[in-house]
Write a structure and sequence with these properties.
3 domains; 8 strands; binds magnesium ion; 434 Repressor (Amino-terminal Domain); Rossmann fold; alpha/beta; 452 residues; binds guanosine-5'-triphosphate; 21 helices
């Protein structure tokens, strides 16, 4: 499934990923290629439009431009949107009802309902350890009921005995009482194939729904029909309370348009994929895994983490540049404090740096903790931008104003200014290559004493 799309995406991303930076034109071209790839995959036009409109602003956002690996960030954005279009989380079969729990399968002729009835029965017996009964309500196609009976015999699943000439409504009632008698916990009803324009057949499933009150009504749809499958789901939804989709023949579908269109067009979750004719060719539908497959990626989690790391490093690099030029201001200090907070406070940030256990121990002893970060943040926010750029101008009356604004006192302001001065000095030393010495020996006492 999705082979074509995967190949296209691989092509598009391989050039994006390599680019050291991305401008608007490159992102635009990438998006155009993605748009085309989705349309060729038979994804509905509405879905394609919506998809691109969600990805575009994010892909052109500030974070991407500043990132050291913009291509990977774009991949991540596309991945997130794919997951969202595929349905976010996988949806279990709802079995939380008084047994026998009725499940009804509906769909167009030849979509794979009977095969799926047996697959689902086997799946629930094996994975949910439930006793399942199958019942065919297809009294129209010759030998349809026998087909299900045969599948039951071959796979050791109980099938409601056939009574020639009985109508669907009566078969339903007989199945319910038989399940009560033989202790079946789930009944899966296989229905006759019908089209949404066949009003008589559509009103029949409505009647069946009324009799059995299904816990799940699942549309079995052929993924080879692409976006049509999603439109069919939308139509069936108008008649019955559709709760999920099984996409069959996804083994032969190289495009994946049905899967990508379904959630947006019909707003029904895909629960399983049929991936072959055999009973075991049946898979739970996991949107995130499918998105991984589409993008031809391995471990997305590590990729995401890497991207986040890159962002922080970008920030650190900028600070370092400023330090070297002696331009470190209270604004930079503020952004450092915020970054520290984001990364889990001093504890967090220290654990990222190699060889700083000594400094960390000193900090712990001095009680430098999260509370101070928050307090310092409040103090800096109470300063004017001039004061932040040039702390030297902060005189007595300014200190008073800042203390009032941040709900602290003048002693706190003094302490912060001292810390800031010390920090700038310390960082200057570090950037001059004294990092190693400091990591081994700790912060020199003359500096450290000022910290307290
Ligand atoms: N390759 C493949 N074939 C499938 C899959 N699911 C069903 N089929 C095949 O599709 C054909 C039709 O399947 P059925 O289960 O009889 O379809 P149906 O919806 O019950 O058909 P009607 O009752 O006539 O409406 C059979 O040959 C199945 O083996 C699948 O996931 N992959
Ligand atoms: Mg059938």
């Amino acid at each position: 499934m999705f082979e074509n799309l995967t190949n296209k995406f691989e092509e598009i991303f391989s050039s994006l990923k390599k680019a050291p930076s991305l401008d608007e034109k490159q992102v635009d071209e990438g998006l155009k290629a993605i748009r085309l790839a989705l349309l060729e995959a038979d994804v509905s036009l509405d879905v394609v439009k919506e998809f691109i409109s969600r990805v575009k602003p994010k892909a052109l956002g500030q974070e991407i431009v500043r990132s050291t690996s913009p291509g990977q960030m774009v991949v991540k954005i596309v991945y997130d949107e794919l997951v969202s279009f595929l349905g976010d989380t996988n949806s279990d079969i709802q079995l939380n009802a008084v047994p026998p729990v009725p499940i009804m399968l509906v769909g167009l002729q030849g979509s794979g309902k009977t095969t799926t009835t047996a697959k689902l029965a086997k799946f629930l017996e094996k994975n949910n350890k439930k006793k399942v009964m199958m019942a065919s309500l297809d009294v129209y196609r010759p030998a349809a009921q026998e087909q299900l009976k045969l599948l039951g015999e071959q796979n050791n699943i109980y099938t409601l005995p056939i009574i020639e000439g009985q109508l669907p409504a009566d078969i339903c009632r007989r199945a319910l009482s038989a399940a009560n008698l033989n202790g079946s916990e789930i009944i899966i009803f296989d229905t006759a194939g019908r089209t949404q324009i066949d009003l008589q057949m559509m009103s029949e499933i409505k009647q069946i729904e009324g009799i059995i009150n299904p816990s799940e009504t699942i549309l079995v749809a052929d993924s080879l029909t692409g976006q049509v499958a999603a439109n069919v789901a939308k139509e069936f939804k108008n008649t019955v309370n559709l709760t999920g989709i099984v996409l069959t023949r996804s083994d032969g579908d190289g495009r994946g348009g049905a899967a990508l269109s379904m959630k947006y067009v019909a707003d029904v979750p895909i629960k399983f994929l049929g991936v072959g004719e055999k009973i075991e060719n049946f898979e739970i539908f996991y949107p995130d895994r499918i998105a991984n497959r589409i993008l031809g990626m391995g471990d997305i989690v590590s990729l995401v983490e890497k991207a986040a790391e890159d962002l922080d490093q970008e920030n650190l690099k900028k600070t370092e540049e400023k330090l070297k030029k002696g331009q470190f201001s209270l604004n930079d200090y503020l952004s450092q404090l915020r970054q520290m907070k984001k990364m889990g406070g001093i504890e967090g940030i220290m654990s990222f740096l190699p060889g700083v256990s000594k400094i960390k121990a000193q900090m712990d002893d001095a009680g430098v903790d999260e509370k101070i970060i928050t307090q310092n943040e409040a103090v800096i926010l109470s300063m004017t931008s001039k004061e932040r750029e040039n702390p030297k101008i902060i005189d007595g009356s300014r200190k008073k104003r800042i203390a009032n604004g941040s709900g602290t006192d003048i002693a706190t302001i003094n302490k912060l200014l001292k810390q800031f001065k010390m920090m700038s000095e310390m960082m200057k030393k570090m950037s001059k290559g004294n990092m190693k010495g400091m990591a081994d020996k700790g912060i020199p006492p003359e500096l450290f004493n000022q910290l307290k």
